[in-house]
Amino acid sequence: MADPEKGTEATPAPTQEEENMSEDEVEVDEDEEGGGERKELVDKLMKDPQVLAALQTKLRRFLGTPSGYISSLPTIVKRRIKALKKLQLQYTDLEAEFYQEVHALEVKYDKMHQSLYEKRRLVVNSEHEPNDEECDFPSDDEEEEDKGLSKDMEEKAKIDEKEESKVHDFDENTKGIPEFWLTIFKNVDLLAEMVQDYDEPILKHLTDIQLKFHDQPMGFTLEFHFKENDYFTNKVLTKYYEMKCVPDKEDPFGFEGPEIFKCKGCTIDWKKGKNVTVKTIKKKQKHKSRGAVRTITKTVQNDSFFNFFNPPPVPEDPDEEMDDDTQALLTADFEIGHYIRERIVPRAILFYTGEALDDEDFEEEEGEEADNLPPIGEEGDDEEEEDDPDYDPTKDKAAKGQPAECKQQ
């Protein structure tokens, strides 16, 4: 049948015989009459996924799979392979001991780090004004001055300063470093995705994030310290993470070091009407027989950073399987907890200034694909879904691959 758009004859679909042809069976003689047409047909067949799959299957049969190769070895060679696997298992056990000692070393040095974290907290919250000696660190601006700035650069710097002054209302009388942790959250994509507009006024009251290591069981706790605010009465919100550093008996060679396998949040004592993790929706219902219409209200979960403190429970039975949505949420939760522990807390000032941001933290502004993407939180169907009282935003986030809460190492 002719293709009305291209004006040429459409290529006939390959037959079952053609799909099962191996590469050796597809022979083309360029010197034969019509050889060019046959070559064109072969080229099209080789691009067909079904033909390629058939070829791969035949190649595997010809070459043999690794497992087939191992099973074909003599018994004496198989014995030696078992001996090497036993040695590998001993190596894995030693590796587990190594990581346990590394964790003990982390706990030891963490005690030294705490004094530095405390000094940082005091400066951020205007409880200590650093003296000249404590501030003796060359800034980027000073290094540029040492090199000598041109007049053009100086003018540009003045313009930039004016533009920056519009972003905030800080001046020489400002105390501490306002919005220190909120700025970090907004700089890091992994955290910025979780923070909603209505979370920001609360996070402005965040004064410190403290890291506490646990020896037995292995793990750590993140403590989020807040000053008095209009949203909840808690002074500290905690997130506990437990880790395991023992090879799995079912898959010992899959061991790659300590991994988070359990986490626990805390109860937030919200003040009346201030809980940003829930929202009330209204929906009209029509009676099936009488046709009467009524409006019902229902409280559902709302997207918020503070859902981070209410992760899904991990089953006590290690053999119990979790559904995919729960597993996705926990995986995301573990990733964020690990990132805060490993990167955010130790290097907070560098994330505040943006110096510690990885290349993947920056999005490209140009390009068709980026321009065609809807803004985060405006996928189109969300509004309709949220009208459904049974709509669960946490499941929606898991389905879209967004970290509603934190990932495994």
Low-pLDDT windows of residues = 1-11, 17-33, 144-149, 366-391, 393-409
Largest sheet: 4 strands, antiparallel
Placed side by side, the strands forming the largest sheet appear as 1-2-3-4
The span between the termini is 56 Å
Determine the strand fraction and express it as a percent band. 5-15%
By DSSP (H or I, 4+ residues per run), the number of helices equals: 15
Spell out the helices and strands N to C.
HHHHHHHHHHEEEEEEHHHHH
| Helicity, as a percent range | 40-55%
Could you tell me the radius of gyration in angstroms?
A: 31 Å
Please report the total strand number as a whole number. Answer: 6
The mean pLDDT is: 75
Gross geometry? extended
Structural class: alpha+beta
Topology:
Blueprint: H1 16-19, H2 35-46, H3 49-63, H4 66-71, H5 75-124, H6 140-147, H7 151-165, H8 180-187, H9 189-192, H10 200-203, E1 206-214, E2 219-226, E3 236-244, E4 259-264, E5 278-286, E6 293-301, H11 324-344, H12 348-353, H13 368-372, H14 382-386, H15 393-400
Antiparallel strand pairs: 1-2, 2-3, 3-4, 5-6
Helix pairs in contact: 11-15
